[in-house]
Amino acid sequence: MAKNRPTAEEVAERRHTLAYIRLITSRRPIFFTFPAAMEQDFQRKRVASSLFYIRSGQWLLLLMFTLIVAIAWFNYRPLMAAHDYLLIKTIYAPVGALILFIIFGNRLPWVHRRFHAVMFPVSLIQIVLIQQHVFQATGNSYYEYATYNLMITLLLVALGLRFATPVLLGLYLLSGAVSLLSAMLFGLPVNPLSFFYYYVIFGTVILVLAAIAERQERFGFLQELLARLQGEELTRLNRTLEKIAHEDALTGIPNRRSFDETAEKEFERATRDRQPLSILLLDVDYFKRYNDTYGHAAGDKCLQLIARTLQEALMRPADMVARYGGEEFILLLPNTPPEGAAKVAERILRWVDAGQIPHETSSVAQHVTVSIGIYTLIPDKQQTLKGVVKQADEALYAAKGAGRHRYLALTPESTEFAAQPQ
Description:
This protein is of the alpha+beta class. Helices cover 69% and strands 8% of the residues.
């Protein structure tokens, strides 16, 4: 449990993140980005979404490209075959290769890790090639067909590759500038009005729609993150409340409520399986004198040391020790006969003595000692856990009456002689 407990820094970071999410969702700014770590998580989610779209629509995309090439071939064959199929070699073949890379290249680990960084130049080259295709077709019947292909490309790049809006804007501006400069360099004709309409106006519409979609995605991401963090916070609070309800605040061991819940289950199991069950009730000898002599802070420290000793004295995971109230502790030993319970009690007496916690006002030793009452039985349906604890308490009372610093073991059949102090 301790390994899963968040550190103070993690709790503070979580609360800072929650405050940031609530601030953004309440103000709802038009444009915003996240802090670095959150932005990386968001972009990773967008990459995963983009890869899903690409892989889901890969065959449809290949079919669409095949149809575009087929329509161009059957309707503009002379142009496609001109100059030794120059248009196919310089436009369609490179664009097809880029489409194949977008579809299948993302499976390469280095592409997957740097998806948007790799796809940016790929998209740039693709848009510039098709734009050159449009410029080359200026003045003939193929010009309109080439323009439609460019508009489809701009749309697919925005929707499929899911660049961040500033990156998409940079891609459109850069590809447009490169296309115009190359047209000037190679002397290709440019229709300014047509270019403004199909590239600038249409590109702006796509950019605005992409920005709106990204903004909604960002708010959706914040809502998911808020729900997750609130769930984690609720889980943490529930665990804290559970711990408070079942753990003694002073000693850190289970409290009486926790003991009662566990003991009831073990009592039922012992009844069902006809197995022996031992209860040890322990009391620190002359603890009131100890508090009066050394103070309550020292008394608290003493109880913590006793609790630690009791925990260390238990050798089996199923065994349990709890603080039962004040200076009283109770131990649950499932499937333990009287002989086993006596060995545990003897070990506790030795280890508490070995601790040598000073107690000058004790009437039995110069150090802190304990008295132990043991009750062992094979329970049946006529008996109750409350009754068993009462029997252990009677054994403890008898151990105190016999001089303290010892244990007294009882069974339903007999009373055994108390072990002598070390």
